[in-house]
Write a structure and sequence with these properties.
Layout lengths: L1 H4 L6 E3 L15 E5 L5 H7 L4 E9 L4 E6 L3 H7 L8 H15 L9 E6 L4 H10 L5 E5 L8 E7 L5 E8 L2 H17 L12 E7 L2 E6 L5 E2 L6 H13 L1 E5 H13 L7 H17 L4 E7 L8 E4 L2 E4 L6 E5 L2 H15 L3 H5 L4 H20 L8 H14 L1
Parallel strand pairs: 1-2
Antiparallel strand pairs: 2-5, 3-4, 3-5, 4-6, 6-7, 7-8, 8-10, 9-10, 11-14, 12-13, 13-16, 14-15
Helix pairs in contact: 8-9, 8-12, 9-12, 12-13
């Protein structure tokens, strides 16, 4: 993972506590040292490796999720902004860790890692060029294993103020998503009404043998899990930027084509369920025009922040131009119900009109297709299982 951080420089890595590198006959552009002794930084500096980044590995080396920058208290606290949990237990654990930092904890008792270089890392030079900061500090989120895994870096001033976020895709599928997000942000930025709600694209382009995206930060307030006026205001602004109408039968045909692309990955029971949903939606939307517009694609609390009385929305990797305007709302409620609130599924399957019910069926098929085709998710994946049960409930 750290080879992406160091620019795929094939860094020399030591895993034995207390081991000192013999650099007399080696020239390496980046050195990564796990569990280094206390004064190794000073020793390496005398050998020319004067640029260093120290991290604490959280929660453990066996299950690493975050690399938290070590140094002063404020830097560590700001570094924790990269991790914004919503599940109750995870929020409690983060609160306890923050209290420990505020009380003076400096990483002791946790495995640490040192990255040392002779010259600034390529990422540091990119940040300097894009932002002017000559001594950036990083916090790293190692991402969730899967087909679309990414390394995310929170970029900060030495005092901890956040400059922005960098995404480094780790798979081919993730690379395509990050490319799409960069193109989406560039296009969305042409609408002045949307700019207060979205990140600014600071840099995007080819990087080593992959791709990189650097975007501005948003406010620090946690996005609400209850759908309310802030969400309505944002979605209305999004709809006003670009809106079209699509005949119902055309929408059904589009969803059907995508769903049937999943056929090689599905069993007979899945195919039968999908065909039932398509038939129901096709009948209910015959002769109906469907309002469509820009869809965020993963509109959920963990992809939002709040500041200045406004919702800030990021992670535009799966944005769609020309999707039904109700689908972002459906997705928000489904994600919250599945992951946080655990509402009864039948409450989600209820709709006020026949057309809304049909649109919900098509949303579920589209969401399932994404799991199967893009993410290669198995049938027992939590998101897949939950949506299947919703589909069954909605069909009655």
């Amino acid at each position: 993972m750290l080879d992406h951080f160091t620019g795929r420089a094939r860094p020399l890595v030591s895993k034995s506590p207390g081991e000192i590198f013999d650099l007399t006959e080696q020239v390496v552009s980046a050195l990564v040292y796990e569990s280094p002794p206390g004064k190794v930084g000073e020793e390496l500096a005398t050998k020319g490796y004067a640029h260093s980044h120290w991290f604490a590995i959280l929660p453990s080396c066996k299950v690493p999720r975050l690399l938290l920058p070590l140094g002063n208290t404020y830097r560590m606290l700001e570094g924790f902004q990269i991790y914004m949990p919503f599940a109750p237990i995870a929020r409690i654990m983060k609160a306890l860790a923050i209290r420990a930092i505020e009380a003076g904890w400096s990483g002791r008792g946790r495995r640490r890692v040192l990255v040392a270089t002779e010259q600034p890392l390529p990422l540091e030079r990119l940040v300097t060029k894009a932002s002017g900061e000559r001594e950036p500090v990083f916090a790293l989120s190692l991402g969730t294993p899967g087909a679309c895994r990414k390394l995310t870096l929170q970029v900060m001033h030495p005092d901890g103020g956040i400059l922005g976020y960098i995404k480094l895709p780790l798979t081919e599928a993730a690379t395509e998503r990050v490319r799409h997000e960069a193109a989406t942000l560039e296009r969305l930025w042409t609408f002045p009404s949307l700019r207060p709600y979205i990140p600014n694209l600071l840099h995007a382009g080819e990087w080593s043998d992959g791709y990189i995206l650097f975007q501005s930060p948003g406010p620090l307030g946690r996005g609400p899990i209850e759908f309310g006026p802030l969400h309505e205001e944002f979605l209305q602004t999004l709809r006003s930027a670009h809106q079209v109408e699509k005949p119902g039968h055309v929408l059904v045909q589009e969803v059907a084509a995508r769903w049937r692309n999943s056929d090689p990955l599905l069993g007979a029971d899945w195919r039968e369920l999908g065909e039932r949903a398509l038939a129901r939606a096709g009948g209910d939307l015959e002769g109906v025009m469907i309002p469509c517009g820009i869809m965020h694609g993963d509109f959920a609390p963990w992809n939002t922040r709040v500041g200045n009385g406004r919702l800030f929305v990021f992670d535009w990797e799966t944005a769609v131009w020309g999707a039904p305007i109700l689908w972002d709302t459906f997705h928000f409620h489904v994600q919250v119900a599945q992951s946080l609130v655990k509402k009864r599924r039948r409450d989600l399957a209820r709709s006020r009109t026949k057309e809304e019910g049909a649109s919900f069926l098509l949303y579920l098929l589209t969401s399932l297709s994404q799991y199967f085709i893009e993410e290669r998710a198995p049938s027992d994946h939590a998101g897949v299982s939950y949506r299947r049960r919703l589909l069954v409930d909605a069909l009655g």
